[in-house]
Amino acid sequence: MNQGAQLSDEEFELIRSLVYQRFGIKLGDHKRSLVIGRLQKVLLSGGFRSFKEYYDHVVQDSTGRALLTLVDRISTNHTYFFREREHFDFLKTVVLPEVTARIKGGQRQDLRFWCAGCASGEEPYSVAMVISDFFGDNLSGMDVGILATDISVSALEKAVTGVYPVEQLAGVPPLYRQRYFDPLGKGNWAVREELKRMVLFRRLNLMRSEYPFKGRFQVIFCRNVMIYFDNPTKQALVERLYRYTEPGGYLFIGHSETLDQASGLYRYVRPAVYRKV
Ligand SMILES: C[S@@+](CC[C@H](N)C(=O)[O-])C[C@H]1O[C@@H](n2cnc3c(N)ncnc32)[C@H](O)[C@@H]1O
User: Fold this and answer.
1) Residue whose CA lies nearest to ligand 1 atom number 12
2) In this predicted structure, what is the pLDDT of residue 135?
3) What pLDDT is recorded for position 1?
4) Which CATH superfamily is domain 85-275 in?
5) How far is the CA of 223 from the CAs of 36, 66, 130, 254, 277, in angstroms?
6) What residues does ligand 1 touch, defined as CB less than 6 Å away?
7) What digits encode the pLDDT tens for the residues 193-225?
8) Is-catalytic flag, 150?
9) Under a CB-based contact definition with an 8 Å cutoff, are residues 127 and 113 in contact?
10) Residue 266: is its pLDDT beyond 80?
11) Topology of the domain covering 9-74
């Protein structure tokens, strides 16, 4: 039965505290209908008669797969190419010239960027296009790596495939579409291999206390991810991101987000851009 299973207050409380503890995602009271809407299908396909039965299954599943499905359904993966275009202009006009100067000055040989909370890949591919365009023919001689991570398996699968319907390419400048995509037919476009090779997709829960990275990044994008977190969670995450930013490196956040300056970590550069000094 559970077409229309009811979600009691206790069940909502159980589910939201699980999602908060494991993923830092805060589900306010107004998210109740989102929880019902997004989990209803999972209940139905798994044959669960109530949200409590489903919850018990998630916490008892030692493989962790049920928990992944849960966060996959709950998290919002909305994104698009060249979202918040100002960031890409800043990347091109300020950050990449600076990084190049450091490489030429021998301070660093490689280029390491991280998109934390990359959803279905539009953000890291946009970064890759800007980098590729900036370096042009010189790119082949450079060591460039864009790490792109997310908690959502289904979003990452889409990202790795790199195939997008034409409507999703609306933000891609025509020249970039021509250079970096191939038409697949049926209104789908595929990201070209040379661009895909620049991006490494991995699953990573940003709530981990340590991240498995050896080096630090010159640029971290963590945009429109912290909006789902409460202040203590956000603050702790920013401290972790700071550890993985190289001195002089940048943190880009969403334009609707703010960083608490009281911590004295990153310095404000311009809207939604911060720097580790
Ligand atoms: C709205 S999307 C933002 C995508 C992209 N950064 C942008 O600005 O367009 C937020 C992403 O954060 C991811 N996310 C949420 N909580 C996370 C966590 N604890 N660890 C890793 N990723 C998380 C979600 O799965 C989702 O794909």
Assistant:
1) 117
2) 95
3) 45
4) Vaccinia Virus protein VP39 (3.40.50.150)
5) 26, 27, 17, 4, 20
6) 23-25, 75-79, 83, 117-119, 123, 150-152, 155, 205-207, 223-225, 228, 254
7) 999 999 999 999 999 999 999 899 999 999 999
8) yes
9) yes
10) yes
11) Chemotaxis Receptor Methyltransferase Cher; domain 1 (1.10.155)
